[in-house]
């Protein structure tokens, strides 16, 4: 599915992500964890083409995305839900979702979206800026999904969301994986959420992966200590 090889990313002369290599499978939820400032968001932005790479390459189903602009990566099967969600606050919920449909075959919002997110149908005419944080997160995921991605990237999806809604989002992500068979990459710090939804866990520190294991083998206490400030 997605192959990342010896990726190096930074700002100016500074290198933030150094020599990162990993690959994903179809129908898999994978977590990239780490403390603040360790390179998680920089890596996510590089995968989407928001930040240029210094070296290495990114391939999706054998297609080299490394030099492509972000919109071309979307056309080739990547989708991104940024930290903070970044919905269009003055647009309606429905128009926010439709903003993700530019390169798709859809003329109307697919019914599958409302099956996953019934609250978005109820609030279709409401301005996105008036939704709660959890509702905005669902909206941002829906907007990404209508692009029919092969790989869905979520940066800190639990940020600023109350615990009961975090459980709902965990359930939704597992439903998406089952319904779509896509790969989902979650960049996260909340360990309980990660262990609830992900099959594999990576930890990034100083721009490099320092830990990788399947969920069944994860030592939660060890992982918690690695993530402690």
Question: In words, what does this structure look like?
Answer:
It is a single chain. This protein has 229 residues and is of the alpha/beta class. It has a single domain (2-227), classed as Rossmann fold (3-Layer(aba) Sandwich), CATH 3.40.50. The protein contains 9 helices and 10 strands. It has helices spanning 40-48, 70-75, 93-98, 111-116, 118-122, 133-145, 163-180, 191-197, 220-227; strands spanning 2-11, 14-23, 28-33, 53-60, 63-64, 78-81, 151-155, 183-188, 200-205, 208-214. The strands form 2 sheets. Strands 6-7-8-3-9-10 form a 6-stranded mixed beta sheet, with helices on both faces. β1 (2-11) and β2 (14-23) form a beta hairpin. The mean pLDDT is 90.
Descriptors for this entry?
alpha/beta; Rossmann fold; 6-stranded mixed sheet; 4-stranded antiparallel sheet; globular
Topology:
Layout: E1 2-11, E2 14-23, E3 28-33, H1 40-48, E4 53-60, E5 63-64, H2 70-75, E6 78-81, H3 93-98, H4 111-116, H5 118-122, H6 133-145, E7 151-155, H7 163-180, E8 183-188, H8 191-197, E9 200-205, E10 208-214, H9 220-227
Parallel strand pairs: 3-8, 3-9, 6-7, 7-8
Antiparallel strand pairs: 1-2, 1-4, 4-5, 9-10
Kindly summarize this structure in a few lines:
This protein is an alpha/beta fold and 229 residues long.
Structurally, the number of domains stands at 1
What order do the helices and strands follow?
A: EEEHEEHEHHHHEHEHEEH
Largest sheet: 6 strands, mixed
CATH architecture: 3-Layer(aba) Sandwich
Helix content: 25-40%
Number of strands: 10
> What integer is the average pLDDT?
90
End-to-end distance: 33 Å
Q: Any idea what the shape is?
A: globular
